[in-house]
Amino acid sequence: MGGNTTQFLFFNLTMFLKIEVYRYPAFVLCLLIYCFILFANLVVITVISRERSLHEPMYLFIACLSFNALYGSTGFFPRFLMDLLSDTHLISRPACFIQVYTIYSFVGCDLMILGVMAYDRYAAVCYPLHYHRKMNLNTFAILAVVTYIYPFVIVIACVLLSAKLPLCGNKIHKVYCANWNIVKLSCVSTALNNMVGMLLSITVVFIPLLFVLYTYLRIVTICWKASSEYKGKIFQNCLPHIISFTTFCLASFCDVILSRIDLEMINPVLAVILSMEVVIITPIVNPLVYGLKLPEIRKQSFKMLFLTPKYCK
Fold it and tell me: Does 191 score more than 70 pLDDT?
């Protein structure tokens, strides 16, 4: 074991010092964002749960996305908002690792849900006559359990391994706790952590990513020789998922890049904004995309919000 190891009781989130002058405007803006995330996703969940015609796998997966957005944003925003108003930015070890677990499991679940949603679109387009046999409520239940249980279990392994590492420092150059930033503080070899992290990346990130790309390649192949009207219908049905998936990938890519570079080299406000994308952008985009692009959810949402029928068209 090298270096001076200490069992730190707290971690110091140093990026808050870089945005100290903007903390009150940032607090107001982020509080409004959090309220909107809660409101928009609760509307989607409520509409899908109340309307029996929406109790189909496609809509139920959308409800899962919204539920996961509530879970992830609630694991981030309350602590972040308190830190913005605080003069000290220390977070206890247990709270830090709970935050790591929440954010990473949120990201893992989101990507796996998007993966099974791609399968749903693939089955609907490529096997329309057998869709209800391939994608029924039993299939949905099995896929939903897998998409939640697997990320939750493997992220626990990552967090427990990181929690056991002897550390030579306690400064995390972010506005929230991130596993990679903690691992970099280790005084000993992190080969096992890297191996488990690679397993997490392959099974929770790259396999769903490749599966989504494969399903859309098949969908494009099917649509290539179809009529323009059929292509337009398929595009309309798949567009919300494409937007959600692309948004998620871009936000995750920004977070990965930021964790590998020296944040002192870029504008601190930009660094904070980019690092927060993964917990902000998708919880905002998903309810808007699915709520506005899918007619049934849009119509029922407007009804629930007491808007007149002419707005539902």
Answer: yes
